[in-house]
UniProtKB/TrEMBL annotation, chains A, B:
Naturally occurring in which organism (per UniProt): Jeotgalicoccus meleagridis
Database matches in NCBIfam families: sbcd (TIGR00619)
Quaternary assembly: Heterodimer of SbcC and SbcD.
Job description of the protein: SbcCD cleaves DNA hairpin structures. These structures can inhibit DNA replication and are intermediates in certain DNA recombination reactions. The complex acts as a 3'->5' double strand exonuclease that can open hairpins. It also has a 5' single-strand endonuclease activity.
Annotated protein name in UniProt: Nuclease SbcCD subunit D
């Protein structure tokens, strides 16, 4: 079976106020062309079809048109799960009818252990969930992290899984591929959502959405497709495209797509840019410039846009800033040291015992949760 | 063919801040029971499924559940058009798949002349439109009223209509049944949306939504189903239910439904109510009271709610007000007389010539349009 794995479409996304619907339509057309020409059997969209729970009418139309194209016009089987940006009810609307053309959506924890069986493959569709939801659903207060929650789900699936078939999990979560990032230390707030790659070890493939970098995890059985487009200037260096999984020869490849407008980030001086000392080939890209020596320049954005009309962001570059930041190995310092360094750096004074006690009480324990 | 005609569900509607989803679920259950028991072939929902373009997730779920119940679980054919409260893109989402189970939605002016043919009946699905839309669509600036717009649409349908078949129009509009209400006089603002019943004379039946009173028009071939529930205190005296059309014996009947909470409006004195001089059998109804002699009473709402917990509105009744309003026959007075009476009554003085000229210039001509 040849599976095209995509995700994080974020239909309706805006960037710096700019509507990206045309860019999304453009890149989806490329996806359709590929699906049509390359003999794909099944398309998997691993969550975040929409950018928000209440998408605009134009976003709804573009999404509907894309699904009609893939499933009805091109006649490809289709699997979708809900991501954290999607409204489950929105995504689920109409799903009873979609089944008639092998288009399967799951947004329901109650159904994660009911595989969608196509040929010799069982697909387990796991919608994005958070810790509180999992606690309520499993009636288990001991669930304290995404790791706990997803382990519970995989346990539930394991009980029914037929190992003689090819088993594929589809999820929308933050998978951590390395032991370090599993740290449960209180200050590692950003990591509390991380789910270890071991959780999914029983699956032949785990097709993921959530992280926008297609190579966020380097694993032979679990991978991200990456997002449809570069959705922030932190993603400028990320390739964008989709995954292709061939279950017969067990090959997994990443296929890049070319956006209507690329995203470019540049740091330099204002003079160099406007005097064309530095130039960029692609005049139509979306640019973010951080430029020094802009003080006293009137309407710098207008001047920059004469050269690059689609400049989205222009910021003064302050070069001295952050000079005293050092690379430190976070695993070798304790909470007290980190907190002291933080207060020292931001308030330029020492930490009091009272402050540290307050900090400890606040961050250690049940409150240490982010969504 | 036995057709159940309903409309104006307004799923997600609130009344005085109160969420009516439970009331809507309750009454829909009655509808399902009827559909199931009475051997209905087809259900028509004549617009305004939702109360607003961006329904809540709970509203989306209730609507989806209702459509699944009727079309998939009970296996009934289903026809829906968009009303003025619906978002066309929202209603249209998924419609390509719905066709597979004889569930047809039209939200598109381009398709009004493509009938849905079921047995010997052709259904023409006409979504709600406004004047500006019709002007753009037909590229005809001479369209100045809903009447003009719907005549254009019916013209388009008439060209393809097969008179040998039973032809049914489904629409969401303000149909006027009598010659008087077709008045094009400038002051008849509320009537500018009215479409004459003659517009639809070529159809065997015209099934309508928009007006909430099931007997808003008294005609043997065109009728409203009325809304699913009483949605404002101006509707207290209206029966609520659905229409049943039997095309074989040409019988059209109205079938009333019983809501979970009725709506009751009462005028009287505060003393009479709290001293139980007047009482109402149904303690659970939604009440609106306009009561005199409330001056000086502390927390009157709390006292009223001791008797009627679901009281939604409590207003002081000022009995002298409006005493000098007279019933007048609007067809016998001219614009000048109406305007003079208005200024006289509200400002307590005579109209100046300048004012009347301004009024005339403003209201006569192209500005006389409401949506």
């Amino acid at each position: 079976m040849r599976i095209l794995h995509t995700g994080d479409w974020h239909i309706g996304r805006k960037m710096n106020g700019l509507d990206l619907l045309e860019d999304q339509e453009y890149i989806l057309e490329q996806l359709f062309t590929y699906i049509d020409k390359e003999d794909i059997d099944l398309v998997v969209v691993a969550g975040d079809i929409f950018d928000r729970a209440n998408p605009s009418q134009a976003a709804l139309k573009l999404a509907n048109d894309a699904l009609v194209k893939i499933n009805i016009e091109l006649g490809k089987k289709l699997i979708i799960i809900s991501g954290n940006h999607d409204s489950r009810e929105r995504i689920n609307y109409g799903s009873e009818w979609f089944k008639s053309t092998d288009f399967y959506i799951n947004t329901d924890l109650d159904k994660v252990h009911e595989p969608v069986s196509i040929d010799d493959v069982d697909f387990y569709l796991i919608p994005h969930i958070d810790v509180l939801e999992a606690r309520v659903y499993f009636e288990d207060e001991s669930i304290e992290s995404h790791e706990d929650a997803y382990q519970k789900i995989v346990e539930k699936i394991s009980k029914v899984m037929n190992k003689d078939r090819t088993n594929i999990a589809v999820g929308h979560l933050y998978l951590s591929g390395s032991i370090e990032s599993d740290s449960e230390r209180p200050l590692s707030m950003g990591l509390s959502e991380a789910v270890s790659v071991d959780t999914f070890k029983d699956f032949d493939y785990t097709l993921l959405g959530h992280l926008h970098h297609p190579f966020a995890v380097n694993h032979d059985k679990a991978f991200y497709s990456g997002s449809l487009l570069k959705y922030s200037f932190s993603e400028v260096k990320q390739p964008k495209g989709f995954r292709l999984i061939d279950t017969s020869d067990k090959k997994v490849t990443f296929v890049p797509l070319t956006p209507k407008h690329d995203l470019v980030y540049h740091q330099g001086t204002f003079e160099d840019l406007v005097n064309r000392e530095v130039t960029f080939e692609d005049k139509d890209a979306y640019y973010k410039f951080e430029l020094s020596n802009m003080a006293g320049i009137s309407e710098p954005m207008s001047k920059v846009r004469l050269l690059y009309p689609n400049t989205l962001e222009l910021k003064p570059l302050i070069e001295e800033q952050n000079n005293d930041l050092k690379q430190i190995d976070i695993s070798k310092v304790n909470d007290r040291e980190i907190f002291e360094a933080f207060i020292n750096q931001t308030l330029d004074r020492e930490v009091t015992e009272f402050e540290f006690e307050t900090f400890k009480n606040y961050f250690v324990g049940e409150d240490n949760e982010t969504d």
